Amino acid sequence: MTWWTGTGVFATLALGVAHGLTHGCLKLDSITMDKMLAVPGQSYFVKIDEPYAYGEKADAFRTICQLAYAVPNFFAAEVPVQRFNQKENDDVREKFNLTLQDFPAFFLFIEGANDAMRYADAVQAANMIKWLRSHGISMPSIDSIDELDDIVNEFLKDASARHVERARELEQKYRNDAKAPMYTKIMEKSLAQGPKYAADEIVRVMKILEGKVHPQKRAELSDKLKVLKVFAKTDACDIFHCPDGYQKKFGAAGIIGSDVATCCKPPCVNTEGDEHDAQGHHCDYYDERTAPECGDWDTVSFRAGRMCCACGGGHTKTREAED
Predict the structure, then answer these.
(1) What pTM was computed for the model?
(2) CA-to-CA distance for 154 and 151, rounded, in angstroms?
(3) Is there a contact between 33 and 92 (Cβ–Cβ < 8 Å)?
(4) Alpha carbon of 111 to those of 75, 77, 124, 282: distances in Å?
(5) 31: number of CA atoms within 13 Å, CB side?
(6) What's the burial of 215, exposed, middle or buried (CB within 10 Å: 0-12/13-18/19+)?
(7) 17-35 pLDDT per residue, tens
(8) What ranges do the domains of the chain cover?
């Protein structure tokens, strides 16, 4: 399929008015999709799926959306396709020759390319990032950086300054990833303070994260833990203690993390109260089997996507809320 790459005032304005379903993600429809793809100099990774999708695949794409923020001239976007009622955006499904069984479907639109490329590997954030990077999208890594990890493994066998220089040379390649310069800093600290530096630093950083930390600083320290674990030969989530009532999610979408949001699944409470959908259902109707219906029976006073845990809503009690 060929996409027009001209310019237009409306297409440019669309960048400012499109609303993301999650942080860093644009919400597109059958009208705005073509116009967004026509904006020159931009590339897009688009998910076509049912509304209010949830589960590991939805979590994986949510991670892509959040990481895409750091990549210049690149956006993650989503087109929700309804099965019932007005069947909104069903024409997008038809355009790409998709069936409901194909959902979620992912397509990469690279500026200047004639055809969209479909992602067909496992729907895990780490795999999607690797695939996007193979097509020229400089995505940050979700965990540590493989190429730099290889240098760390050599550094652990032979702690010398030459490995530090090799790591520094790779920093430019991963300039969109805040973790890249951390490798050289940790190597230099390890040379100065000895091989136990990484393990001791993990303990120190984890103690800091147990307290009140500014979100930006928390993100920075979480990234640091991801790199430190390579030096200490440990997985950050393995040593992370979830708050009471939370569940550890070691293998969620193949993600290794180092903070409550990544390592732990918070308890969720439905918030519909006495309200119900147009079919008389309360939130307990929605589960893994019926989740595709989320939003199809919404009313003025009942919004499944806001009220029901199975639809991505409800109330989750985070550590920040407790503090």
Answers:
(1) 0.56
(2) 5
(3) yes
(4) 12, 15, 24, 45
(5) 4
(6) exposed
(7) 333 355 678 999 988 998 8
(8) 9-134, 150-235, 266-322
Distance between CA 273 and CA 311 in Å, rounded? 16
Write out residues in the chain with pLDDT < 70, as ranges: 1-23, 112-114, 234-241, 245, 247-259, 262, 288, 317-323
Q: Are 248 and 255 in contact (CB under 8 A)?
A: no
* pLDDT on residue 310: 80
Could you say which architecture CATH assigns to the domain 150-235? Up-down Bundle (1.20)
Count the Cβ atoms, other than its own, within 10 Å of residue 203.
11
**For 9-134, CATH number?**
3.40.30.10
pLDDT, position 22? 59
Cα angle 310, 280, 82; round to 5: 55
d(CA 222, CA 66) in angstroms, rounded, equals 15
Packing angle, helices 146-157 and 180-193, rounded to 10? 10
